[in-house]
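Trying the structure run again after the queue cleared.
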Amino acid sequence: YAPLFRSGDDVKAVTFALSAAEGRIEGARAVDGDALGPRTTEVERCVAQRLRDFGVKPRPGEAAELELKVPEPKGPPPWDRDAFEALDLSTFAARGPDTAQVTMVVFTGLRCVFCGRHLGTIDQLMDEYPTQLRVVVRPIALLEEDKVVTEAAYAARAQGRFWPMHDAMHADQDHLQPDAIRTYAEAAGLDLARFDADMASRTFKEQVELEAKEAIAMGVMGMPTTVLGGERISGAQPIEVFRAKIDALLGAR
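Done. Tokens:
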């Protein structure tokens, strides 16, 4: 359930659920007030359900409202390789030579901590395979709050400054919020008047939403998702996983 925990309210929800399991839900609410939004309640119920699944039961009457049943994980969605291979990779941001023998496709989230970690792996791979590897990246906004940040990256790409913007965002993920993106645009050397106009009019909103739907439909459900040789590799795996796949692809050519 880690994908549920995205904010301070989510941490609050976990605290409430744990307190409920010990019969102290009202005390927890009193300390933090009763300002619970629907998302906080959702996470609280999910955590409480899992506590019950592991045999941790609240005292009678203390947390009767926490009754949401959470479905068991069903594993990753099927990978639609045909849909992936139909993508126009020229619409992705790219690094590395056009003549490279191997293309590594990365679906990433600009506010995703694991994607930031994966970026270091990508940089190391590009150092190891300077002429054989080309990396193409598409930022995907799976969450509503990520859309504006992703639109900003596309606005930078329209000015030929995607990579400076991308790198600036990943370098400061702890403070990467929609209301601070103009700072990154300035650091990346963008034409701020044009950037402001694109952001105000949500120029890239439809594109960002469409590409997220395409990614989900083909089986991209988490970040980062890497594709090598048409095969999906989920998560920020150790560099050896990618190195072995690249070597296998190079050996087959």
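Residues 75 and 137 are 25 Å apart (CA to CA). Worth checking whether this holds up in the mutant runs.
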